[in-house]
Amino acid sequence: MSITNTFTPFASTKSSSQSPSPPKPLTSAQLKEKRKNPAINIPFFTELTKKILNDFYPKYCINCPDKLLTKEISTQPELIRCEKCRYLTSRLSYTPLHHMKLPLWMFSYVFYESMIQHPKVVTSTEISKRLKISYKGASLLKKRFQLFASQQLPKYKKLTYDALDQEFKGFTLPPDENTDITHLMENRPYVSADTMVLFSASERANGGRKRYRHGGSTASIYLSESLGGRQVGTLVHTIGVKKGPVFFNSVPNQKANTLGPIIKDHLPLHTPLMTDEGYPWLWGIYSNHRSVNHSARSKDIRYRWAKDRWSKNGVHNQVAEANHRVLKSAFASYYYIRPENSTRYLNEFSFLKNAQVFGAGCADW
């Protein structure tokens, strides 16, 4: 799961010693944007957006079989044509940038800023102020980036699944769950799963929560029946690999029918999975599943909690807990997210984290 940095040398020493070619003159639209944003390298981000579209959403000619469209129009960067038959189409159609009216460079600028600022999030308000556009336009631009991130997550999921399948092929933990497995997991990545309430329903703010119908974490994400009983908080399920990728999913509850398919879709069955005691149904599915009791009581009457309630015999879910802390700190900038929008925001955060592990280019996949 390491990233290999590649370096492409210059073609020749002679060509590198020659004076660089003069930059292309800016179009009238680019000059107008340059006056509004003088500190932003607009040509760089324009070319970066084109590269993203060419790599992830290539356009082919409908008249010439397997002919990739590469001919650009200098005055209309959103268009692309066939060099042979002159077929013309939009490079934005049926992509996350479909019908985008903002300049192309703004999309890659949001992409670039989100990557370098991670784990800090880039809010719509920040985008609006930096690019000097309306909040509505900035919000839609962020949605486009979140859609792009959501479309790339299945590739990261497959890479993670294949890497774990190869890493733990034929690996088994001792059948006795009280056996210390520290030496067995010493040089292997820990895989943890856990759930967390990201945004909860305040009792003072909504007049009452479903404290008695729901138990555990879900008690704080639903309104009371007198107020409609709808979900207002967000419950997040996390699957994380130590020093590796992480996947966040918005879930309505912690039932086996909800969490089971998510775990099975991300992790091979022979993966040593570490959780707390909220997953008692995993033992019959994942033979290498281990859990730690966070509510363990101390045998010494002087203390209330046991000292090994977080880590015992090499079993802990601190990988998921650490990602929860990062997620909560980052999402504090949003103040609140509606449950129906939580999947987009969590997919964006997962993509940015996994891009630092695997890379963000098609060549890395």
UniProtKB/TrEMBL annotation:
Chain spans, region Disordered: 1-32
SMART domains to which the protein is assigned, alphabetical: DDE_Tnp_IS1595
Pfam families: DDE_Tnp_IS1595
Name of the molecule in the record: ISXO2-like transposase domain protein
Organism: Leptospira weilii str. 2006001855
Residue span(s) of domain ISXO2-like transposase: 204-354
Polar residues composition bias: residue spans: 1-11
